[in-house]
Amino acid sequence: MKKAIITALGLAVFSVPALAEVTVKDSWVRGTTPAQKATGAFMEITSSETAALLTASSPVAGVVEIHTMKMEDGVMKMRALPKLDLPAGKAVKLAPGGNHVMLMDLKQQMKKGDVVPITLKIEGADKKVQTLEIKAEVRDLATPATQDKSHGHGMKH
């Protein structure tokens, strides 16, 4: 009887689906002026399985949203997204001029060299939600939209 219970418990452990492995790299936040109340956070997210970025939050901002930018009638427009799809095995780049995390109602100036904690909520295809804590380095206000400093500021979960 004991052997049957141990075997059943062992099988139950192996049948629990694992959360998708999500890797976040090159996370950074654009610096701000003292009076500026909003900025963007950028990164590259890769999930081993199909998933979605549901929300983001940070103690430095009163409001945090996932945004996209698209050209409409010759005008670049920004809008909030309900979620951002993360296709299995494909890197999704959040970058200036495209998808990004918008930090609004800032509680302080974002100064070059500071580190901003950001919490990401990722939902897997199985509807299980995992929380990722990342640290994003603040870069200079004048950082070009195309600059890529992939040098180990990422986290793997």
| Strand segment tally | 11
The residue fraction in helices comes out at under 10%
Q: Ranges with pLDDT <50 over ≥5 residues?
A: 5-16, 146-157
Shape: globular
Gyration radius, to the nearest Å? 19 Å
- Reading off the top of the CATH hierarchy, the class is best stated as Mainly Beta
| Spatial separation of the terminal alpha carbons | 39 Å
Structural class from helices and strands? mainly beta
Enumerate how many helices there are, as a single number. Answer: 1
Element-by-element helix/strand order: HEEEEEEEEEEE
Number of domains: 1
CATH superfamily, called what? PCu(A)C copper chaperone
Characterize the main sheet.
11 strands, mixed
CATH topology tier name: Immunoglobulin-like
Average predicted confidence as pLDDT: 86
Can you name the CATH architecture? Answer: Sandwich
Explained architecture:
The protein is mainly beta. It has a single domain, classed as PCu(A)C copper chaperone (Immunoglobulin-like, Sandwich), CATH 2.60.40. 8% of the residues lie in helices and 51% in strands. Strands 1, 2, 3, 4, 5, 6, 7, 8, 9, 10 and 11 form an eleven-stranded mixed β-sheet that branches. The chain is globular, with a radius of gyration of 19 Å.
Search tags:
157 residues; globular; 11-stranded mixed beta sheet; mainly beta; Immunoglobulin-like; disordered C terminus
